[in-house]
Structures are given as structure tokens and as C-alpha cells.
């Protein structure tokens, strides 16, 4: 059980899912930085263990990614990414290579290197919706893709893709988590909220 604690108090993080975003949470910075609390884990003082949320300067719309980290006291690694659409456009895909291996991603005639890093690498095919062939390679095995598929490019979607070490040999050497976001659903939800607020006396 996790909460976000800032200068105004603590808020439980609800409906967490490995392939979905949660609702948006507002964080207010004060004298101390905001933290994520692990309510199930207590320190010597009896209080929940915490991990600090470090928001880089200039980030307009921070996206907090909570990643497992066995060596951390809370068992968590917190990654803050810029999520503003001026930086992460609709129709784009962002890759985070959380393995220790250099990879290459290819689509259509494009070749994109994916170094091991928590810094995202972004691709944007552009154009209308269409199916595109994609492949992943280890950089030292350029003739043997470890993954090959057909993805749909949709200019109304943006996708965050995490690449991690595979835990199931049957599924290949790399585990992939894909977290999509659909602009149409966001706009529909905003219109519904606007209509609901407008109907209140």
C-alpha cells in the first residue's frame, strides 16, 4: 500500500496497474520534498519507509514511474519523466531500456538505438494510422531479432514501453511493458466532467 505525502498530507495511490496509468495526483512542494510512503514497511521509529520524489527543474507535467528495486529500503525506485505533450507528443512511442544490454529498435526504414538508461528514447512515425513492422535486436546480434511483430501506429495514441530482463525463458530474453494513453478517451472524460459540473445548481 502506497501513499504520496507532501506538505498538505498523505493521499493513497489507488488502482495501480503495471500496464495503466493511475488518476492524476496533485503534489504541493513545501519545506520538505514530496515522498512515496510504503505503508506496509516500517522503520525503527515505527513510521512508514519513504522514497523521495525528485522532480527535475523545468518539468511541466511530471509522470511518476514506480519501479521495483530490491536494494532500496522501500523496494521501489522512483523515476520522474516529463509528460507534457510538447515533449511527449501524440503519435509517439517512448522506450526505457531497463536492462543492461544495448538494443536496436527498427520500424519501417528507421533504426533507433536504445542504450541501457532510465532516460527515454522517443520515436514518432508520423502520418495517418497504419500497421508498421517492428523488430528489436541486441546491438551485438544485428541479424537475429529477439522480437518481431506488427504494431498499429495511431496519431491519437502515445505509448510508454519499458524493456526489462525476461523472467520467463518461453517469452524471450526481454520482458516488455506497454502503457498506452488515448487522447480520445481523455477528451471524452473531460467533456463528461464538464457536462456534470455544468448540470450542478
Short description:
The protein is mainly beta. It has one helix at residues 183-198; strands at residues 2-6, 9-12, 35-42, 48-52, 62-68, 76-82, 93-97, 103-107, 110-114, 117-123, 130-138, 147-153, 157-165, 174-182.
What can you tell me about this protein's structure?
- The protein is mostly beta strands and 201 residues long.
- 8% of the residues lie in helices and 46% in strands.
- The chain has 1 helix and 14 strands; from the N terminus they run ββββββββββββββα.
- It has a 4-stranded antiparallel sheet with strand order 2-1-3-4, with no helix packed on it. A 4-stranded mixed sheet has the order 10-7-13-14. Strands 9-8-11-12 form a 4-stranded antiparallel sheet, with no helix packed on it.
- A hairpin with an 8-residue loop joins strand 13 and strand 14.
- The longest helix is centred in the last third of the chain and has 16 residues.
- The protein is globular, with a radius of gyration of 19 Å.
- The relative contact order is 0.12.
- The model has no long low-confidence stretch (mean pLDDT 90).
Amino acid at each position: 500500500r502506497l501513499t504520496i505525502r507532501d506538505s498538505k498530507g498523505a493521499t493513497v495511490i489507488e488502482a495501480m496497474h503495471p500496464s495503466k496509468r493511475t488518476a492524476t495526483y496533485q503534489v504541493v512542494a513545501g519545506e520538505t520534498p514530496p515522498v512515496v510512503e510504503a505503508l506496509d514497511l516500517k522503520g525503527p521509529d515505527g513510521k512508514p519507509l519513504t522514497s523521495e520524489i525528485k522532480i527535475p527543474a523545468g518539468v511541466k507535467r511530471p509522470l511518476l514511474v514506480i519501479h521495483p528495486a530490491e536494494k532500496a529500503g522501500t523496494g521501489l525506485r522512483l523515476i520522474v519523466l516529463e509528460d507534457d505533450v510538447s515533449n511527449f507528443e501524440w503519435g509517439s512511442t517512448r522506450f526505457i531500456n531497463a536492462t543492461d544490454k544495448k538494443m536496436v529498435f527498427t520500424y519501417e526504414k528507421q533504426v533507433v538505438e536504445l542504450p541501457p538508461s532510465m532516460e527515454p528514447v522517443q520515436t514518432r512515425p508520423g502520418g495517418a494510422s497504419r500497421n508498421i513492422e517492428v523488430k528489436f535486436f541486441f546491438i551485438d546480434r544485428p541479424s537475429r531479432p529477439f522480437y518481431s511483430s506488427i504494431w498499429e501506429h495511431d496519431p491519437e495514441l502515445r505509448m510508454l514501453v519499458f524493456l526489462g530482463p525476461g523472467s520467463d525463458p518461453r517469452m524471450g530474453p526481454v520482458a516488455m511493458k506497454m502503457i498506452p494513453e488515448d487522447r480520445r478517451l481523455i477528451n471524452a472524460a473531460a467533456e463528461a466532467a464538464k457536462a456534470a459540473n455544468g448540470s450542478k445548481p
